[in-house]
Request: fold
Amino acid sequence: EEYQFLLNNNTLTSKQQLSNYLITTNYLTKEQENELLKEYKKTGNIYYRLLYTQRILIDQYLGNRKLTRSETLTEVSIIKKYLEGIDTWGHYELSIFSNCLFIFDDEYIYHSFQRSVTKMKAYVDTAHYSELLSNFLLNGIHLSFHRSSVFLRKLFLGGWKKVSDRYKHTLDLARYKAFTA
Reply:
């Protein structure tokens, strides 16, 4: 990311600017949503479609949007198809998975955690991986409480124990202790 920033003469790419905007804003207008879809159709870059899909699914999950069952299934299938098509997940795939954990059933989460997330630590930059993994684990713990799923809680707490032991970040250790108290 830093290299890309320097390569672009200390300016963010349009994708990076868009990502930053979407992270910091709570609401997108219909026009902005349509712009994402238009950019996807124009470029064929799945990045724009996935941003749109994540945004509307999260809005629905938070109760800020109503989708029909058919619309929901269509959007969920876009995320699943993309993630299942990637053999080796990176930062982007884990971010998508983490942001949309709520669309997956417990078994899917378990298998993806074992197959893709655990495997990532071998090749992802540890500075980014530990932060990304912490956010993923926090989302997973939240989901486990929302679903009252002891299975997920054990899965994510086990992962958090390993992260807090390995990376020794105070916040991770504090979160682990808080959730296991």
Observations:
- The two ends are 37 Å apart (CA to CA).
